[in-house]
## 1
Amino acid sequence: MDIRLQKVELSRAGKAFCFDTLIRGGMITALAGASGSGKSTLMSLIAGFDRPQNGHILFDGIDFTRAHPSERPVSLVFQENNLFAHLDLRTNIGLGIRPDLRLGTAEKAAVSHALERTGLGGFENRLPGTLSGGERQRAAFARALVRKRPCLLLDEPFAALDPALRIEMGRLLLDLQQETGVTVLLVTHLPDDVERLASEVIFLKDGEILADETTGAFLARQEPQEIRNFLGNRPPR
Amino acid sequence: MLTRGETIRAIAGGVSSLAGIALFAAAGVAALLATGLSQAASPLLDPYILGVLRFTLLQAVLSSALSVAVAVPLARAMARQPRFPGRIWILRLMGVPLGLPVIIGALGLIAVWGQHGWVNRLLVALGLDQPVSIYGLTGILLAHVFFNFPLATRLLLASLERLPGEYWLIASNLGMKPRTLFRLVEWPAMRSQIPAIAGLILMLAATSFTLVLLLGGGPAATTLEVAIYQALRFDFDPPRAVALALIQIGMTALILIVLQFFGGAASEGATLGRPPERPDGQTSAARLLDAGLILPATAFLLFPLAAVVIGGLQADLLRLIADPMLHRAVLTSLLIALPAGLLAVLLAYSISSARFALLSRKGQPMVFERMANLTSALASLILLVPPTVLGTGWFLIAGPANMDRLAPFLIAGINGLMAFPFVLRVIDPALTSHRERTLRLCASLGITGLNRWRQVDWPGLKTPLLTAFTFAAALSLGDLGVVALFGSDQLVTLPWLLYSRMGSYRTDDAAGLALILGLLCLFLMVLGTASRTPTERASP
Amino acid sequence: MTARMHFLISRLPLAIAAAITLSAPALGADKELTIYTYESFTAEWGPGPQVKAAFEKTCGCTVNYVSAADGVALLSRLKLEGAATKADIVLGLDTNLISEAKQTGLFEAHGIEAKDVSVPGDFKDDVFLPYDYGHFAVVYDTQTMKNPPQSLKELVEGDPNQKIAIEDPRTSTPGLGLLLWVKSVYGDKAPEAWGKLKNRVLTVTPGWSEAYGLFTKGEVPMVLSYVTSPAYHIDQEKTERYQAASFSEGHYIQIEVAGMTKGSHDKTLSRDFLRFMISPAFQDIIPTTNWMMPAAKMSKPLPAAFDKLVVPSKTFLMSADEVAANRKAWVEEWLNAMSLH
């Protein structure tokens, strides 16, 4: 499913944002840029937590600009706190199917299956606090799986994980994406993630899009300075 | 994951604080008992005392339940509307009743709800001629709710604001309905705090004295505190006073223990301090509902305070402000209230740190956990020791010759002790979630001791500590009970000056002083909320 | 209680006594007189400052005040301090407290011939000397009360919609005063009278200040206060809005007294003060500072505001011993009558 932002404008706390882009369906697009450049705002606009003052947000050509967050075809995974700490995994993931938690046998089976698929088989009754950081993020993916929304917004989902785990989680993401064909928008501050996971890159600066291109073109850039700085973070190979 | 040294130091600190409180109370009581045996032949639990006990508990339980029942939906509405116009001022005003001497609050309430109050005048203007009478249980409950729901609301709001901001976004994305969100997220977070908050209000209501007599309408409404005062002052029967105080403590402790089982342990996620966005509060229905709760609650809080302001403006304020007596009284009040606030914060911080150190050790038996939880609740029982009993006991220990020198320390000390249970409710949850968030990182980076305090604890806990401190200072600022025991013409606090003007026909002066006292409290609350920024709001 | 705790507690008074002896102020150098009194006496607008200045002019001494919240607190403080008290003079007890005060054994007969003292009710005592008095009265607001009760009976049986605020006899002296007033008039029928009066009582406050506060805020048209209360409003606020109702049965009196302690370190000075207290120099100060009637001759006539006050036709006063013997039983009787529904 394509996500189209048509001259979307928003000003918030004295800062102006203006986005116009197409996030193409069925692939992973990375969203990068310095902190404060508008990554979270762009995510919020797509998810529906913020309403633009001007412009339209379309999913496959259908205007969702005014739709409630829950009506939009997106699932979300944040860096942390994706799970309600006092609810067990079955409940946390079940919320993705029925937000009022009336789970029948079929729904419960779907939850177990999703847990299985993300490597958390048998963890239904565990509380998030008893899991490792990586396991908690897997559970968040499991919920995205059961929700079956065509778009997945990931806000630095691996930032709190150590490098080995990050690579493992990246692989899981790639697998899931290929399996479901979901459109993924991945916010990251690591050029590594961009290279390994994304097909396209959107790079933001001061509330506007500085670059919007394929990963190959992006990685080959020598200017402007902001992107060089970003890519300079890449560990030497 | 505290180091061994840290654990031991934390536990030692908490134990010495607890021991200090217990010793201070025990010494006062012992000194009082040492004065001699009961002269009275009348049995302790006569029908009069039994009736009083029944009424004390009845009104205290109802007051506590009602305050919490008002505070739960209100706190939720306030949490859902982080950008409600004037929200920060509503929160600040909620701290003011804490610092008002009860008589001032009561007169404000009567100006609104009394026989000839605004409500009744409005009803008469609307053509109803039967005035609403609040005297009796209604009035007592009204007053106790007025004095306590703001505190309960702020504490519950803090428990909601401590939840990670991601929760609200995820809930909104998942399409959880407000009811489900309340049942699954908001209520569990509040529930974990309710036993402590309800217990606190219960204790305050149980020891209420002036309000109960003033609004109770007759001696059928009498609390044990009145009987204790009567035993100590009119009958001069210290053993009886102590025995009654023990009954009061015992009965309330029982209720507190029962309340403990109602709560569950709060488990909160760690958060990077994402500013809480509440998309669930942005629907028209939610806005309407929340405004429909916040506005009447604010009016309920504001009107009696407005009556105090209006009364105060009729006084000759310029003359009062120029009066050197006032300057001395304000200075005296602050010199007592600030150390009292500091003492309360130190006690609560050390006890809370110790509790956390105990609970965070792995493989703890459940009994141990319950005990640790219960200890801090029991430490709060200090609220139930009537200040008259403590004060009189310590008066004996200090001796008349030293009274003039020791009185300020004793007043500040007793005020600090009385404020400690409030402060604990502010600090304990904040400290626990702060520690859970930072402990591993600190341990892995090897940040300990003073460094940890400077780099991690103070920045992270500044807001709740400041709030707690200003709460405690406000409480001490409004104190009349303790200062009345030790006050002399050398030691005149603002409420004491106010009360003495009331006591000699100078009601206008008293109203003016009440306004000044109220403003002083509001100023403290502004200080206490000064460090609240949009990203750091997890403090009442 | 364990044996050890017994031991500790039994040692406590010793420790207290030791602390007191150690820190007792050095005596001698300059003559000092320590007066224990209540707070509104020593307040800046009270009689205290003027009394201190006037007495210091003649005695060549320094007057120190130690103040308690009220008369009852004053007596409690004295009981707590016992023989260790610093007080030379105790000023501010009322007639109802005299008996208990004497039981402490801390007071000494004044030995002063008080022929200048004149208070209604023929009060005489060899330990305590009166310095002022006031009759209790129902004070009403003329703006809301056109037909005030003319007698206690009318108060008791009047329109229950016209309310009164009274004080609690368990916690305040005016409250006890009303209790004794009703007892004096109704005797054994007092419970029935209270049963009726109950319906007119809006509320029972812990002290005078709260009740009077309700009254001046307009919450209640009547309050139990003093015959002299209107004098304050006439003299200071230039208003005759608040008046005392004259009751045909008579009014109960509160007499405020002072006495000297056995432990006084300069008994001549103490006696000098008591003599000064019933002299015009002291008495002149009382009416417009304590808002009570002087207990002895003044050097000038009473202020004009006092001319407008009600003069009770009859004075009720029970002996201190009778009050002390019956207080508990009568308070219990009152409680029962007021608590019944």
## 2
Amino acid sequence: MNQVKIDFDRCKECGYCVNFCPKKILAIGSKINKRGYYPPVIDPIEECIACGTCAKVCPEAAIEVYKEI
Amino acid sequence: MGDKVFMQGNVALAESAIRAGCKYFFGYPITPSSEVPEYYARRAEEEGLVFVQGETETAVFNMIAGAAATGNRVMTATSGPGFSLGQEAMSFMAAAGLPAVVVEVMRPGPADGEILAAQGDYFQAVKGGGHGDYNTLVLAPCSVQEMCELIQESFELAEKYRNPVILLSDALLAKMRENVELPGRKEQNCDLSWALTGCAGRKHNVMTTCGDGSAQWEKYNLDLQEKFAKIKANEERWENYQTEDADIILVAYGSMARVAIGAMKLAREAGLKVGLVRPISLWPFPVKAFEGLGDKTFLVTELSAGQMVEDVKLTVPHKENVHFYGRLGGIVPTPKEIFEQIKKLGVK
Amino acid sequence: MKTIYKRPEVLTDAITTYCGGCGHGIVNKLIAELVDEMELREKGILVWPIGCSVYADKYYKMDAICALHGRAPALATGIKRCLPDKFVMVYQGDGDMVSEGMAEIMHAAVRAENFSVIFINNAIYGMTGGQMAPTTLLGQVTSTSPYGRTVPAAGYPVNMAEIMANMPGVCYSERVTVNTPQRITATKKALKKAFELQFENKGLSFVEVLSPCPTGWGQKPMDAMKWVDEKLIPIYPLGVFKSPEEVSAK
């Protein structure tokens, strides 16, 4: 299973990852972080193709992507 | 010591700076300082120097800040109007701990003014022309010889305290030719672990003067105040002439001190016991020079409307005993003229 | 597991002070990626401006200095002239470069200083709260052009990449943006080219990045990304305005 790690407290809820994810599997979450933002959640992770677009567009380098091989 | 030569002040100063290992010069032409950049440009190839003429003094003062940040000896030379443009960077260098050396060759202000000798930039240099609480060591030679020695020391003092140093010259000292024994070569030897050189083999260095909240910035300021206090405690310099038995004491620095010495001699010949206090460090003001002089009459003479006189008044026990005589516009009074002023004080 | 993307090594743990969706963040990240990939950390000095990126020295484990407003190119001149074989990067916003420091950037180009300049153009003063910048568009409302920028009051927007391209001392000048994944990749390519050129001593390398400023423009981040397309790019066209191949071809 591919992995997308989001640094919860680094996110500022800009929504770029949500918008540019080609599979549309990112959505703003419901849990609030330390700075008052709602980081995204991935659902379903199974559809993630580990393309890394979310990490590429993130202004905070808050997302890391790992591909299962 | 070096060779004996008959040399112009600006040129002797530049040669002495090169011998002190100052390989980097960033400047902008302005009378009466231009021979210094010209000399650096001429000697660049032979001595492996880097000479850059900047677009403005505003830029030049930031160039020397950058060079100083790498730990290299660096200087500029300018005059009043250019020095004014450099004040933002003076505040920056004092705060960031950047040991650049600035030669300010004073000329009559304000504004464009004239190009002969003056001392009207005393406040700007001594009290700090930039923003915020900061100080810089200000050294004022009164001869080409002393200027050559002090410029070499300026680099060591800048590095010792990691603070910019101002060498305050004027058009007379800059343009006149005198016999001078040029000082020898000096090597830089001080801790440079703080410098920006690329962090291979060490923790990275960061220099920022952007505060990170008031508490942090007060702490940063208190550290700076400690630095300035050390300079103040250690670096007072002066020379007293025949002050032990004097009834009247002249106070003058730089070119004006040489005129005062002439007046002192005329007075002595006429039976008047006159002495001279010659500040060499203008910041820190040499308070110790006045200790033990007792309750005398002081005559402060400057090529200005009166600036150092205020510091003398702050220093001596009775400021009503402090008198002033100055000339403006680039007119340098003669010893006789000062002698007349001494007599006018009517001190028997 | 194969790593597709990992947070760059050179970055510290600091959380940036940029607003959510700010273009500075993306460019800062690309710089960090290149520092890692090109192994610039140990031989680099970063020169930061006064503006929203004034705290960027806290985001990198490498030597850095924060210049006075507008003075970064002059400060960098002093550094690079002393350390000609080191990597020196100047990073500036539009207020810092095109207003306060216009003389400094122009003369760094005149002198063909061998460092790389990254110019973030978001058509506004961000840090001080949304005032008009020389790059503010005609008709664009800011806190100091409340009825929209007009020519009689404040003249015309400034196209720096084209100006720099006309300076003989500039070997490379390109304008890019970061409002799509593809363009972020193109931006990284441009930055990499600029960084590489620095070691060929062919003069100043210049990359202008059109950057979304959600807070300053009063928009949501994604709307700001679209605004770059709708409003900025028509005035500030993307593209390479000078490249070394041209320089050597002359």
